[in-house]
Design brief:
Blueprint lengths: L1 H18 L13 E2 L8 E4 L8 E10 L5 E11 L3 E3 L3 E10 L4 E9 L7 E8 L13 E5 L1 E5 L3 E9 L5 E3 L1 E8 L39 E5 L13 E3 L3 E10 L5 E9 L2 E11 L2 H5 L10 H23 L7 H16 L6 H24 L6 H13 L2 H10 L3 H4 L5 H16 L2
Parallel strand pairs: 5-11, 10-18
Antiparallel strand pairs: 1-3, 2-3, 3-7, 4-6, 4-8, 8-9, 11-16, 12-15, 13-17, 14-16, 17-18
Helix pairs in contact: 3-4, 3-9, 4-5, 4-7, 4-9, 5-7, 6-7
């Protein structure tokens, strides 16, 4: 009986050795399917900000940098609406592919999102052929967010850290990191050996993508939990009760170049993050320039462009005023714009709708900047609610919440002849459309 048992073990061992290929130098050849760059550039949504109720396409690039062919690689794509989510992912679909050694494949998924924008997407390798192997499981997952925040150098946003499980969650670390391109004229310590336009100091692994790093010294970044005296990256771990969201406030100052701001949470070896593309801008830049070339109806295009022109004129006149307090007229006209543009959704093509929504988001962000600069202490919750509406694509509600957070009396305007004319022109352009 003992001999038979030993014979069975030897046969099983020999079959295992035969199943794993070897290369010339005698080392074992193993596949390594992976999601490159932790999803950065490997997960791409079209349109980049999904439109509610319309079919969106998401492509996922999967590589195999192992020495043998990867077999039966199962790749799942999931989403959650927003935040660093533990136990809260909703699966879109799973595909199974084979990948040659040193090659990559691109998988195509489609989905109809309920929210217009700001969805978190996760691609994950969930299975593979055991004989072909997977030499490194720490690169089997990629995650992106579709959040673009336009700010005037100083800005902030709220990130929920979500525990979708029944038991309490211990978050071991919660930190903020940055990914930025080289500034124009930046010396890079004189090193850019691969001439890719990214300082070698920002691309240590030479993959052509700037590395995640501590945020630059000139950018003050912190993650704060309301009710705590210090940023949470100095307080670890954090405990979150079951089925509870912990709201983290991110504060940024001194942002001068576009960058990805990453809020990263780790729990029990699982890493989740939220990426926000922060784009420095000004109110003038948000309101000036052509936005509606894609709209076919001339009267509609003229009406919308006229509203923005009126808002910009009111803003520039207010800036010229020494008091610099005449901003409520700007907000009023911009809210007219959002209301009018929102009504166009039912009569617009997909291309027009995508164009209009980008313009609406610029206008909402202009209101957001005005509101943040003039926020009343104690009304931060209104501002946070505005961000939630903005993220869900409920732009009129976002504008209402933002304006409830700042001092209306301080921003009240007098109806001087110039200001009356600006508002009357805006309303006239709107009515002429009909």
């Amino acid at each position: 009986r003992g001999i038979n048992t030993m014979r069975s073990i030897l046969i099983a061992l020999s079959l295992t050795l035969i199943a794993v290929p070897a290369i010339a130098d005698g080392s074992v050849s193993v596949a390594n399917p992976k999601i490159p760059f932790y999803g950065y550039g490997a997960i791409v949504a079209t349109p980049s900000s999904p439109i509610a109720g319309q079919l969106s396409t998401v492509t996922v690039t999967v590589q195999n940098d192992g020495a043998s062919k990867a077999l039966n690689v199962a790749v799942s794509l999931s989403f959650n609406d927003w935040g660093a989510s533990f136990f809260g992912w909703q699966e879109i679909g799973t595909q199974v592919v084979d990948i040659e050694a040193g090659a990559e494949v691109t998988l195509i998924f489609t989905h109809v999102f309920e929210n217009r924008a700001h969805t978190c997407l996760e691609a994950k390798i969930t299975g593979w052929d055991a004989d072909a192997g997977n030499s490194a499981s720490n690169d089997d997952r990629g995650q992106i967010n579709l959040e673009v925040l336009q700010c005037d150098g100083d800005c902030g946003f709220v990130v929920p850290i979500m525990n979708g499980g029944e038991k309490e969650l211990v978050v071991d670390t919660l930190q903020i990191l940055c990914r930025r391109e080289r500034k124009e004229g930046e010396v890079c310590n004189g090193v850019d050996n691969d001439c890719d336009g990214i300082c070698d100091g920002l691309d240590n692994d030479c993959d052509g993508v700037a590395d995640l790093e501590e945020c630059p010294k000139e950018v003050q970044a912190a993650v704060v939990i309301p009710g705590r005296d210090r940023p949470v990256d100095r307080e670890s771990p954090l405990v979150i009760d079951g089925n509870t969201d912990l709201m983290a406030q991110v504060v940024l100052t001194g942002v001068e170049t576009p960058m990805d701001v990453v809020v990263q949470a780790a729990s029990n070896g699982e890493l989740n993050h939220v990426v926000v593309q922060v784009v420095p801008t000004t109110i003038n830049a948000l309101l000036d320039g052509p936005m509606f070339c894609c709209i076919n109806d001339v009267r509609t295009r003229v009406a919308l462009e006229g509203l923005l022109a009126s808002a910009l004129a009111a803003y520039e006149e207010g800036q010229a005023d020494e008091a610099k307090e005449d901003l409520s007229l700007v907000v009023e006209i911009l809210r007219l714009f959002v209301q009018e543009a929102d009504t166009l959704a039912c009569e617009s093509s997909s291309e027009e709708l995508n164009c209009i929504e980008k313009a609406i988001l610029k206008v909402v962000d202009a209101i957001r900047i005005i509101a943040r600069k003039n926020m009343i202490a104690g009304r931060e919750a209104k501002f946070a609610t505005g961000d939630q509406f903005r993220r869900a694509g409920q732009y009129e509600a976002a504008c209402t919440s933002y304006t409830q957070g700042f001092d209306q009396k301080r921003l009240s305007y007098n109806h001087g002849s110039a200001k009356k004319r600006i508002r009357q022109n805006a309303v006239r352009r709107l009515r002429n459309r009909y």
